[in-house]
Amino acid sequence: MPALHRIPRLYHPGPLHAEEEAALSAEQAHYLKNVMRLGEGDAVRLFNGRDGEWRCTIITLQKKRGLARCVERLAEPAPPPDIDYVFAPLKSARLDYVAQKATEMGARRLRPVITRHTVVRKVNRRRLEANAIEAAEQCNLVFVPEVLEAQPLERLLADWDETRRIIYCDEAAPIADPLAALAQVPSGPLAVLIGPEGGFSPEERALLRRLPFVHAIRLGPRIMRADTAGVAALALAQAVLGDWK
């Protein structure tokens, strides 16, 4: 049996229980057979957010399908703190980066939002999901964030559950120190909102400032790209209100 970290690790959306037979997709079967050069009797690790991570034995690998049997649970499900990452979509390569890094940083949900200055208005949800899964596979996460459909910012805010506080970046936030500003946010469900490259429009900024469940933070004296700002804001939120404490 190879060392655990050398056993390939794949996301499996179906049930994972002792002696359960898990069907592998064509892509997974190809990866295990032709890339990793594995076959019948070899080990693979499968995980999902409901049943945890399992060491499985490959039963069969064919061209377009495979089958593995669950043998031993290696880890329990491990959902991250209840933090949504709400973001204006970027162009494809940078959007891939956003999905991967938000997953690594512990976002529980990815929620694309269309703002006045958003350039990319069509979001490939399956591509976002694939990038989130890849990040979870590579970073030993036993959870994959849910990816929601994109919707306009005004509609999102109109239907918002006010028990979930929203943190957004605003260079005019009243408190200069972002850690001090976050310390004033009540504990509970959160969302980190990142606008587009051109920033929020004056009307959107005014709307956000009026809402009692929205909290503004600064990100220092330098101008950041939207994908960088997202990582920085998520790190601050995790440090003060998440599971980095």
Would you give an account of this structure?
The protein is an alpha/beta fold and 245 residues long. It folds into two domains: 4-75, Hypothetical PUA domain-like, domain 1 (Ribosomal Protein L25, Chain P), CATH 2.40.240.20; 83-241, Alpha/beta knot (3-Layer(aba) Sandwich). Helix content is 30%, strand content 25%. The chain has seven helices and twelve strands. The strands form two sheets. Strands 6, 7, 8, 9, 10, 11 and 12 form a seven-stranded parallel β-sheet that branches. Strands 1-3-4-5-2 form a five-stranded mixed β-sheet. The mean pLDDT is 94.
Q: Approximately what portion of the residues adopt beta-strand conformation?
A: 25-35%
CATH architecture of the largest domain, by name, is 3-Layer(aba) Sandwich
What is the class of the largest domain in the CATH system?
Answer: Alpha Beta
User: Number of folding domains?
Assistant: 2
CATH superfamily of the largest domain: SPOUT methyltransferase, trefoil knot domain
Based on secondary structure, the structural category is: alpha/beta
